[in-house]
Amino acid sequence: MDNQEVTDPKFAKYHGVDRNQIQWNPVIDEGKCIGCGLCVTTCGRSVYKFDFENKKTRVVNPNNCLVACQTCANLCPSHAINFADGDRTREKVQKIVKDFKLLQKVKKELEERKDSLKY
Ligand code: SF4
Ligand code: SF4
């Protein structure tokens, strides 16, 4: 699927990076999807809707997806959800961390949010 605009302003930034610049969204292999509904009922970011007629989940708001989450993919009983070509999801996530300099951004963020994050 082509990258789309974030549809919920709450999710517009990821550690300060415009979410629309980050290529991270689930792709469903329709042939594998058994229409169980686990993904669409679990995701808290309205990434999915359910096609009741065809008993398939559809990706409708791809860029609402939390970068690196993968909860739905881990839950899917039929391995129908993917985030990267093949099995290289971790490599893809680490490339995002590097490309967008997330470690530097998070270092600053930790200081800024110290009061609320402090143990
Ligand atoms: S969890 Fe997997 S099988 Fe179930 S509806 Fe979602 S994509 Fe389809
Ligand atoms: S990875 Fe997480 S945020 Fe993204 S669609 Fe799946 S459950 Fe939703």
User: What Rg is obtained from the alpha carbons, in whole angstroms?
Assistant: 16 Å
What count of helical segments does DSSP give?
Answer: 5
Taking all residues together, what is the mean pLDDT?
A: 93
Supply the helix-strand structural class: alpha+beta
- Measured as a percent range, the helix fraction is 25-40%
**What is the domain total for the residues?**
1
Tell me about the largest β-sheet.
Answer: 2 strands, antiparallel
Overall 3D form: elongated
Poorly predicted segments: none
Second-tier CATH architecture? 2-Layer Sandwich
Bound molecules: iron/sulfur cluster
Give your account of this protein's structure.
The chain is an alpha+beta fold and 119 residues long. It is 30% helix and 13% strand. The chain has a single domain, classed as Alpha-Beta Plaits, CATH 3.30.70. It contains 5 helices and 6 strands. Strands 1-2 form a two-stranded antiparallel ribbon. The protein is elongated. The structure holds iron/sulfur cluster (SF4) (2 copies). The site of one iron/sulfur cluster has 15 residues, from helix 1.
